Amino acid sequence: MADMFATLGTWNWLIFGFILMALELLAPGVFLFWLGLSSLMVGLVSFAINPSWQTQLLMFALFAAAAVPAWRHFAKSAGSSSQSNPFLNRRTEAMIGREFTLEKPIVGGTGTVRIDDTIWRVAGPDAPAGSRVKVVQADGASLTVAVA
Length: 148
Hints:
With 148 residues, this protein is an alpha+beta fold. 47% of the residues lie in helices and 24% in strands.
């Protein structure tokens, strides 16, 4: 076993790192990626200096342990980007409170309004075409409006 560790070299660490990253593609979970990155870092450091196998294992352990806080930092910053757009995948809720002009009159409780490049079905009190309406509720692909 000691002979195996004694033969650890730069290329072994690099190959091991690429194998771990390839396994991450087969079993995603962002765990093997950081171990693979740690292995690649040990391989790159081994190109610059020629550490003993004990030092290489210690570097791998330190890099792997440092990868956990790094992963948490990147995961937190990636999660905060979803906070910048709270209506992502809930676009109809973003319509509430906005005012639009009726394209077709509301007759019998239903009409249409053009929002950007889409025609939306609206429900509300009867109003002629061209009237300004305000969205008060969103339910699926239908908007409930009130005369503004």
